[in-house]
Automatic annotation (TrEMBL):
<keyword id="KW-0732">Signal</keyword>
<keyword id="KW-1133">Transmembrane helix</keyword>
<feature type="region of interest" description="Disordered">
    <location>
        <begin position="444"/>
        <end position="478"/>
    </location>
</feature>
<keyword id="KW-0472">Membrane</keyword>
<feature type="transmembrane region" description="Helical">
    <location>
        <begin position="651"/>
        <end position="669"/>
    </location>
</feature>
<feature type="region of interest" description="Disordered">
    <location>
        <begin position="603"/>
        <end position="643"/>
    </location>
</feature>
<keyword id="KW-0812">Transmembrane</keyword>
<dbReference type="InterPro" id="IPR006311">
    <property type="entry name" value="TAT_signal"/>
</dbReference>
<protein>
    <recommendedName>
        <fullName>Gram-positive cocci surface proteins LPxTG domain-containing protein</fullName>
    </recommendedName>
</protein>
<feature type="signal peptide">
    <location>
        <begin position="1"/>
        <end position="41"/>
    </location>
</feature>
Length: 681
């Protein structure tokens, strides 16, 4: 009897017999008595989006000798991680030791690292390694690396990591063939991909340990890059949200054109369009043309096309340049858009029609621009809303631009690129928050890193790092700007800025509430993320934030940009959050900031922030609940005339709306309150 036979445990034989008996019994039972198989769809639905584990060991029978540890999985919310100092030997005559195990899974991907390890199965040569790492991200396939990987003292690191799925056969043993596999990738039924940095595979049933997996992650497949530009003719949505026209015609990608002589709504609904064309060019620009669109709900009275709920549009042209700028024109501007019973002035960005009771009932947006959480930008030439929810909504001419790519940290403008030569690496500086305007806040928790000579940085095991923190900060009694748990670090090789809680302008339409806003720079780039929150009433999902994610605040001149990345020569600045209102409050607020530019020393005398008056009433400098003007200031400003949009002054320009009554209806045609002709019911 061979040693391999002796090592087979009685439990294995008993288990095999039990399986056979169970199979026979099942065959003899009626089908109705057999347990139902678990629903694979339900099982897949509970699978984690990202997971990572350290070491797993399978025994001779295929059972679990050591469950994966440490192990984490992630689907939503904040990143999760786990660490383990070491794992030890489990069986005599077998070495299964590892140290410094760490695993992480979160919105930015999954990572598993092991500082060092040795796997020596009975009568086999040792497999040792240092610096095992396996990582994946939403935009990058998994990568595997080792500082060193040896078999019986022979270094195979370069060869093993050069080819995914590299296989190395160990010398023969009385316990059969044994091999190691490096960077093994398998695709699961749900499309996710599992990558194992190192697998030791013995012959099944030959010795106490059959299989060892070290450093394992599971990630969804890298998402395909979205089309750089898409263009769509029109959409019509019923009040219940169902599509009457679901985006026709439409093209995705550069250099395409599609036309439609007519487009009719589904279910015989009286909405029709003629001569629709959509075009995208090789440079990413796009255009949409619509010869005519009519939506006339009243088809019985003979004057339905003149009712307030009729929408008629003629000769619309949307042009979007390669840089993202857009223009909307009409063949005949004086008779281009009929809505709320009147011909509207198209030289505006918003038309609002009022009913006979003075309540808003129609809105028409022109050249509307919105930014999604992923950084993509949607431009609508015209979007019609029926605020009574009795008639369909209409969107004419839509172009979607993919999110711009992130900006890599700038290299020095001059000096040799060889790190062995003299020169200076750029230093990242960081701070938590700063603001100018009515509620000033000087830079908080500033970390300044001194640029290091390249030779010194290469020689240092740990580059010099500066850190700073602030438990709370803000604009004092004004109560408009407040942050908590601010920490920053800066060094010659990287930096980070974290704002645990960011709260701006509470109780207004512009209110901002974010948790754990993080900006982190390394040698490979900059990542911005948060645990989510709200910006001007819009939810922001937890996870990574695409570069230059813009959020518009309707009815105001306020602009919000998340992960704002800019470059000035060799200087790079990244704002995790940036709010500006240049023409209204002259306010500028930045949070979680990294920059290679110098941060001025705080030598100025203390600034006096806006404060509250008696009884907590806000005085000029604080936003009023409408989010548009400082509390305590007249909404009409110092001028009795409405702003036309052709000129602007540094002060607050909010025009008084001119309401004109006629018959049974009232309308307002405005650019943030512009007067217009009366409605017809």
């Amino acid at each position: 009897m061979t040693a391999r036979t002796l090592l087979r445990r009685p439990a294995a034989l008993l288990a095999a017999a039990a399986v056979a008996a169970a199979a026979l019994g099942a065959a003899l039972l009626p089908a109705t008595l057999l347990p139902a198989a678990p629903a694979t769809a339900a099982a897949a639905a509970t699978a984690a989006t990202y997971s990572a584990s350290g070491v797993e060991i399978i025994d001779i029978d295929g059972g679990t000798l050591q469950a994966p540890k440490p192990s984490v999985s992630w689907t939503t919310s904040a990143e999760t991680s786990s660490r383990l100092d070491a794992t030890g030997d489990l069986l005599k005559l077998n070495t299964t030791r590892t140290s410094d195990l760490a695993v992480t899974a979160g919105p930015t991907g999954a990572t598993a690292t092991i500082g060092s390890g040795e796997f020596t199965l009975r009568d086999r040569v040792p497999v040792t390694f240092r610096g095992l790492s396996v990582v994946c991200s939403p935009t990058q396939a998994s990568t595997v690396s080792f500082t060193a990987l040896t078999v019986n003292g022979t270094d195979i690191t370069a060869t093993a990591t050069a080819t995914p799925g590299f296989t190395y056969q160990l010398p023969s043993s009385q316990y059969g063939a044994t091999k190691i596999i490096v960077g093994e990738r398998t695709t699961n039924k749900d499309g996710s991909i599992t990558t194992t940095a190192l697998r030791v595979e013995a012959e099944a049933g030959a010795s106490e340990i059959w299989r060892i997996r070290a450093g394992r992650i599971t990630c969804p497949p890298a998402a395909p890059a979205p089309a750089r530009v898409t263009a769509t003719g029109l959409r019509v949505a019923a009040p219940d949200g169902s599509a009457l026209v679901a985006g026709e015609p439409s093209v995705s990608g550069e250099g395409q054109t599609k036309t439609a002589a007519t487009v009719d709504a589904a279910s015989s609904y009286p909405a029709h369009s003629k001569n629709v064309s959509v075009t995208t060019a090789a440079d990413g620009s796009a255009s949409v043309g619509i010869g005519e669109f009519t939506q006339v709900p009243d088809q019985t009275s003979g004057v339905g096309e003149y009712r307030w709920n009729a929408l008629r549009v003629y000769g619309l042209r949307l042009s979007v340049a390669a840089d993202g700028s857009s223009t909307v024109k009409f063949d005949n501007a004086s008779s281009a858009v009929f809505a709320n019973g009147v011909w509207g002035n198209t030289a505006t960005d918003l038309y609002t029609g009022l009913g006979s009771d003075g309540a808003e009932r129609v809105r028409v947006h022109f050249n509307e621009r919105t930014t999604a959480a992923d950084g993509s930008v949607t431009i609508n030439a015209l979007r019609y809303e029926d605020l009574t929810h009795a008639n369909p909504g209409v969107t004419l001419g839509t172009v979607v631009l993919a999110a711009p790519k992130a900006i890599a940290p700038a290299k020095p403008a001059d000096g040799p690129a060889d790190p062995d030569n003299s020169g200076t690496l750029p230093a990242w500086n960081s701070y938590g928050i700063a603001a100018t305007g009515p509620s000033p806040v000087r830079p908080v928790a500033v970390s300044r890193a001194t640029a290091q000579p390249q030779k010194s940085v290469k020689a240092l095991a740990t580059p010099a790092e500066e850190s700073a923190s602030a438990p709370t900060a803000g604009d004092g009694k004004a109560g408009q700007i407040a942050v908590g748990s601010v920490t920053t670090t800066s060094s010659a090789t990287g930096a980070s800025a974290t704002v645990g809680q960011l709260r701006l302008y509470p109780g207004t339409t512009v209110e901002v509430s974010l948790k754990n806003l993080l900006v982190k720079a390394t040698g490979t780039g900059v990542v911005v993320s948060s645990d989510g929150g709200t910006v001007a009433g819009r939810p922001l999902a937890a996870g990574t934030i695409a570069p230059d994610t813009r959020i518009e605040v309707p009815g105001t001149t306020i602009r919000v940009v998340l992960n704002e990345q800019s470059r000035n020569g060799s200087e790079v600045t990244v704002h995790g959050f940036h709010l500006t209102d240049a023409s209204g409050l002259a306010t500028d607020v930045v949070a979680a900031v990294l920059t290679t530019a110098a941060v001025p020393a705080d030598t100025a005398p203390p600034l006096t922030p806006a404060s509250t008056g008696p009884g907590g009433i806000l005085v000029p400098g604080a936003l009023a609940p409408d989010g548009k003007s400082p509390a305590g200031m007249s909404d009409t400003g110092s001028s009795a005339l409405a702003s036309t949009g052709s000129t602007a002054t540094p002060g607050l320009l909010v025009g008084a709306g001119l309401l004109v009554a006629a018959g049974t209806g009232i309308a307002v045609f405005r650019r943030r309150r512009r007067s217009g002709p009366p409605t017809q019911d």
